[in-house]
Amino acid sequence: MRALLFISFILLGNLLWADCDPYLKKANSARLANYKIDVTLDHVTKCLEAEQVLTWINHSPEPVDALRFYMYQNAFKNTETTFMQSAEGDVFGENPADRPAEEWGWIDVLSAIQNGQELINDSRYVHPDDNNTMDETVLEIPLASPVLPGDTLVLDMVWSEKIPKIFARSGYERENFYNMVHWFPQVGVWEQSPEGTWRWNCHQFHRRTEFFGEFGNYDVNITLADFLVTGASGCETNNVDNGNGTKTVSYHCEDVIDFAWCAYPHFKVVEDDWEHVHIRLMVAPEHKHLAPRLIGAAKNSLSYMAEHVGEYPYTSLTILDPPMLGLKSGFMEYPTYITGGSFAIFPKGVRTLESLIAHEFCHQYFMGMVATNEKEEPWMDEGFVTYHEDKIMEAMYGDDGSLFNILGYKVNNASFSRHEYVSLDNPSCGAIARTGWEINDGFKGITYSKTATMFKTMEGMLGEDEMVRLMQSYFAKHRFSHPRGPQFIAHVKEHVGQSSNPNAMGDIDRFFEQLVYGVDILDYSVTNISYFIETSDRGYVNNGENRDFVEGVKSEKIKSKILVHRQGGVVLPVDLRVTYEDGTQETVAWSGEENTKIFIFENDTKVITAEIDPEYKLYIDVNLNNNSLTLEPKKTPSLKIGSKMMYWVHNLIQGFGIFI
Amino acid sequence: MRAVSNIVKGFKRSFRFRRVAGYIMLIQAGLSVLVALLSINYVNTSIGQSTNLMKIIEGYNHDVFQDLLLYESTGWEMIKTLIALTVFVYLMLGPLISGGLFNAYHKESDHWNVFWKGGSRFYFSFLKLNVLILLILLICAGIIGFGAITFATHGLENFVSEVPVLIGVGVALFVAILFGIYLVSVSARIKWQMIENDDKRVWANFRLGLKNLKNKRMYLVVLGFLFLLLSAVVAFFSNALINCIPESGFALMLLAFVIQILVLFFKVFLRNAYQAAIIE
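^ Those are the sequences you sent over. The predicted structure of the assembly is below.
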């Protein structure tokens, strides 16, 4: 009988969760911050009313007497918040100061009860980053009694929110489009600082960085108008018609650092599966024809990351492809929930659509599972993600036009990342390792692209297979924890030290010191090739009447002189390869330490080509064209360029010629 | 059907006047070769000795071009200026070309003297007419463009989907193109009329031309549309053909170059055929 009941239970469970099983087979994280939220959306007034139960575990050896919460909807309360101030009058091309009263938003915690005792009256907004008293994005709630080490706090909260019209990602748009992210009071991270003291890490909301959360489980019940179609992090576990024009949709999500959801009456839902993962695409009807591309990109990303980085333990992935009116909600990542950005006409050769999905999906790994602090170390997620995005795209579409392949214009993702870095007005504008709020210039070019290009350089030095093993071991070691930059560097040292070529990266500390913490650029160049035949013992000998001219001995070898320069401040070991006239090649190593160095090669024939870094391992070199030199200029390529230019200019004037 | 048969007649006439096509081709090539020479010089003097340059033999290479434009931007700016100048000079030579072409058609002779005399005699009249036509085109394109932008802005702020905006902008573009080809036809007809009557007065011929063309509007639009369609087909197939050639060595590059020249020459014939069909 018991066996029958057990089998029935299993079968029932399988039927209930046929599409998306919300319960993971095992707990992956410590689940320190768990939420049960009952929220009601009033789509007329654009308000949320919610009851929230936070169950928080003190995992530290110190008692905790106050909690800090992210109250990020308050970033959209007025023009004086830290978010708006750092936006400097431009959020996605809009000046926030132009907004009418009804489009602003805020969140208020009305009640917070610990063991029957109301705490909210003693709460206060704090401003740990900039002392901006107008900023209310971090709320500190003192506790009635401290949470002792290992103890669990249950905090019953009531809060209300006026949803802003979307400034950036979070809020509503016309036609009842909602993307609800950073929408509830979320507890910060109680962590041990590098100095060893325990503290709250709960930064204010700045313009460019958003994530640092504690892992936990979420049970969210959303009551809203029954004409709205919803999607969210995790799996839908229940959907009840309340009979009054509303419904309550329930979601459950485990081992995540955040929770997001969306609603829109016109969503088309396209569902698919990849192994154990249920993919749910919430797509605007006019973009539905793009569903195969969007889901295909998601599946390829899942496949690549599972094989090259580590297992995706979640059972769901929700993709929001917003309508044009909600585009400001796009291009983002939340646990098991990503947002894309598309347009009704999207040529197949323009793969920014797929690249975006790959990028946002990779965030499930870097900041989703390896939950680094995006505010303090944005490179630790955006840089890792951009590198893997490039790898996924090149695995999907090859390395000949993975990002753009249209009318002969072919650009690879890695090349585009390097382009974004080297074409900055000043590629030395700042170090990769800076807090999000310190970066005023070249945020994407440095944080995303320089970091990705640095990883590509590491890959070149270590070899692709070793780089995969490095990322796999890093992910395995730090998943569901909060590593910092120095821990990653320590891991690289340990991993490379144990690899078959421990010196492949040279001095690893120096590598990161220069490229992550420094601002200098890498630029090697070959500036001259010349050659001569040495003649020895030639000239006058003896004195006086015995002075005699000796013809000397002409060497049978030719000496070739190669002049190389290091024009940037970054020093990395590199190879110099020369090709002799007879086709043979010789490669020598150069430490790169000297600003200028002369290499002499002696051979039967002269050197006709010299190439620094001939295998393009050091992809972060800001000018690859000056890495090599030939003794004589190559005419064929320039003739080709000339012929093409003539063709296109001829076409151009013929086009204009129609009008004359 | 009339448009199709006239295009066929136009082609026959165009091929009969091969030398005229040759003169036009020479003028165009003479201008575009300047850009080619400057480009060759630019590449040779900047990265001509880099092995990286060999990568572009296989096709477009983003790293090579990006670094070239980034670190050798001065030369590229010169090329861009020269391209703009080339287009301007060609537009200024336009009246000479159309005057020469129509005079050759009129005199039934493709001798250089006939071409040159027609072009030089009507140069300033045709230049004035071109400016007038261009002004009308710009004003109308401006009105259509303003309407399209207003519609698109309103649509993106108020419609649920961007599809109606795309359709609206597409329709506006289509109307602008149709209007453009109609004006091209009007311009050609008036020029033909001026040459036939040996009358250099611009404004009087413009008015008379518009009056005479009242019943031919649809025909001219269809003809123009047919020409655009043929041009698109030629562009598609010629690019496909050129892209087929790997250009990995000098011989293949030469082959590609010859095909390019033949394609361009054919396009001159096509344009002359269109002009001939307009005046049929």
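The longest helix of chain B spans residues 123-158. Chain B has one domain: 2-279.

Shout if you want it in another format.
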